[in-house]
Amino acid sequence: MKKIECKAIFLSDIHLGSKGCQADLLLNFLKQYKPKKLFLVGDIIDCWRLKSKLYWPQSHSDVLRKFLTFAKNGTKVHFVTGNHDDFLRRYQPLSLGNIELNEQFSYTSKGKRYLVIHGDQFDVITRYGRYISVFGDKLYSVLLIINRYFNQARYKLGYDYWSLSNYLKQRVKKAVNFISDFEDNVAAECTKKGFDGVICGHIHKVAISEVNQIKYMNCGDWVESCTGIVEHLNGEFEIIDFSNVANLKFLKPSLSKAS
After folding, report:
1. What confidence tens digit (pLDDT) does each residue in 32-47 have?
2. Model's pTM, two decimal places?
């Protein structure tokens, strides 16, 4: 199969080391593209989860191997540290061949400067309430487990996939306000530092929009939504959504047994 050439791929919140990670789907996605640059925008490895329980299937190693293969074949790989892989922050900045590690990068496209950053720096709870943040992460994991079994039951009854966690994010007022505040905080930082836009992650909600005259792009995640952002050769940014494929795999009985 001929690979799709593109200027850059932006991925965040893969959470390797967690049972929710859709590593197989991510591999299928990556095999279709040949990027000049690959930005891994934080929370690539879920160290919080690995500290509580070791979980590392072969597919997670295959994802890391794919990143290394990209670098070996000439793709510049930019690894942005996030709050779930914050242990790497003690080693930044670091450059190893075609792989660069840092807390943030500057990226220019069509004359516009973009701040590439995970985004936990603009989340007050993550920065100043780590225990609350960890508790919220555990609650999210429980929701994913409930979601899995709930959708297996829906599938048997002939209903389509429905995301409980995403429903709560969209309906709970505090969650909606949190997303709005996060976007505003990121946009304010870009304005302050003279950037035209931002490419981030952290909140697991993919987006390409404008916030306070700043182009705001969020990569989404590879736990539930299976989304990323691709910059094509003409400089246009596009959201890539693998969620429909993810739903089919998510509903397979073998997945729940493997978990």
Report:
1. 999 999 999 999 999 8
2. 0.79
